[in-house]
Amino acid sequence: MSIRTYKGIKPTLAESCYIDESSVMVGDIECADHVSIWPLVAARGDVNYIKIGARSNVQDGSVLHVSRVSKENPKGHPLIIGEDVTVGHKCMLHGCELGNRILVGMGAIVMDGAIVEDDVFIGAGSLVPPNKRLESGYLYVGSPVKQARPLKDSERAFLKVSADNYVRLKNEYLEEV
């Protein structure tokens, strides 16, 4: 596993995390209990911070990054991922904020300043533009995303099931170590 210090700051990982050895984690990153980071994820908390909530997972080939503090943007854009979030394969999350119980479909891009409220599905290949807010309880699809429809009760329930499945999977991987 490649855990790197940047300017004296090293990622903080809860003991129950699984970080695949092929991923790269640099700088100011905090991973809560039962977070899993899968193969070839690149996460750079160098010019701002990344915080990943409990039971969230970031799947293969995803990129996590932030935006620096500037005169025009005094706080910059950290990357904040809530609890029970599933980030699909090859996603790019850049300086955005994701609430709880979210599924980010494969290949989706969420840009600086975007805010995704709780209980949201973002369709595969979708683009969430800068500073866009996605309202809780909906499926969003497209490039740029548009609100497609309210989530069904079964889809809302699946958001937690997906996170739980990845907690079980990371536990299996940790048993192998």
Question: Could you please describe the fold and organization of this structure?
Answer:
The mean pLDDT is 97. This protein has one helix at 153-176; strands at 2-4, 12-13, 18-19, 24-31, 36-37, 42-52, 57-58, 63-65, 79-81, 86-87, 92-94, 97-98, 102-104, 109-110, 115-116, 120-122, 127-128, 133-134, 138-142, 145-150. The two termini are 12 Å apart. Strands 1, 2, 4, 6, 8, 9, 11, 12, 14, 15, 17 and 18 form a twelve-stranded parallel sheet that branches. An eight-stranded mixed sheet has the order 3-5-7-10-13-16-19-20. The chain has one domain (2-176): UDP N-Acetylglucosamine Acyltransferase, domain 1, CATH 2.160.10. The chain has one helix and 20 strands. The radius of gyration is 15 Å and the shape is globular. It is mainly beta and 177 residues long. This is Protein YrdA.
Largest sheet: 12 strands, parallel
Report the β-strand fraction as a percent range: 35-45%
Output the CATH topology. Answer: UDP N-Acetylglucosamine Acyltransferase, domain 1
- What is the oligomer described by this structure? single chain
Q: What fraction, in percent, of the residue positions are helical?
A: 10-25%
**Count of separate DSSP helical elements:** 1
Distance between the termini: 12 Å
Number of domains: 1
Shape type: globular
What is the alpha-carbon Rg in Å? Answer: 15 Å
Extract low-pLDDT stretches.
none
- Element-level helix/strand string: EEEEEEEEEEEEEEEEEEEEH
Structural class: mainly beta
- Report the CATH architecture: 3 Solenoid
Please identify which CATH superfamily we are dealing with. Answer: Hexapeptide repeat proteins
Average pLDDT figure = 97
